[in-house]
Hints:
- The protein is an alpha/beta fold.
- It is built from 11 helices and 9 strands.
- It folds into 2 domains: 3-196, Spore Coat Polysaccharide Biosynthesis Protein SpsA, Chain A; 225-287.
- Strands 1, 2, 3, 4, 5, 6, 7, 8 and 9 form a 9-stranded mixed β-sheet that branches.
- Strand 6 (111-119) and strand 7 (125-128) form a beta hairpin.
- The longest helix is centred in the C-terminal third of the chain and has 25 residues, at 228-252.
Amino acid sequence: MKVAVVIPAYNSAHFLKESIDSVLSQTRQVAEIIVVDDGSQDNTPELVKSYPADRVRYFWRPNGGLPAARNTGVQQTTSPWVAFLDADDRWEPNKIELQLKALEAHPEAVLCYTGMLVGSPGGVQTVTRAAPADQMWPRLRYENPITPSTVIIRRDVLEEVGGFDEKMIACEDWDLWVRLGPGCKMVGVDEPLTWYRVTPNSMSMNTERMLSAVSRMLSTSLLKGLSGWSRWSWGRRAWSAELSRCAITARNARSPQALSLLLRSLKTWPSPFFLPRRWKSLLVYLLRSPAA
């Protein structure tokens, strides 16, 4: 089971060496490491070219965004399996080994993902376990529990659905998992084998961009195959869920938009049984003292 690793990079030289080294340190070596420089203006070219060319291959392309950079990398691979690693993330040494063991134990699976250690700008680390594979649907209708840096996917399956949508300005990974469909067999490795770094410039921190991307998904992939009441209700729940996530992002950034986003989420789908944490958050707002 040969694996190619695609690392898209845009002005990420300050994190990139750590990412590449984490791949080279794997207990089960990968067949290819491909860094796609998406028009960086820092010292990314010099850093990548300091590695042996037979171990780390460098490709430059005009800046076109993360989906295009990942697709470019996949096009340069020959291995039947592809793993993704964003330039500001890194892996535990046994990530690939444990994932390949999981795929060997579940030969029907075409995608494998892991749990994560999430590091915030303040240095806080939280553990996120892998979501159960048998609960991906309908969960993928309203949220994305799979981060690209955790994923190994079969190359032919990725190509069948056309890769990442290069028109997406965010959520291109979520869009891809949805387009793979409920019939896509997945397996999760529960251990936190991927270090995911949250920075002020992280895509998920831009609430306007995230809402715009989910709005696009609602008209393309997210509700595909649904009609009537089912389509309407899942659309409302998906939009409510995204507003709630953006409210949390805004709250953590101490933005005054947080409460407005939360109220919009509750108005869009008020059921207390759907993401009940939303109502708990509202209660915290209401009970908070004016000086808090």
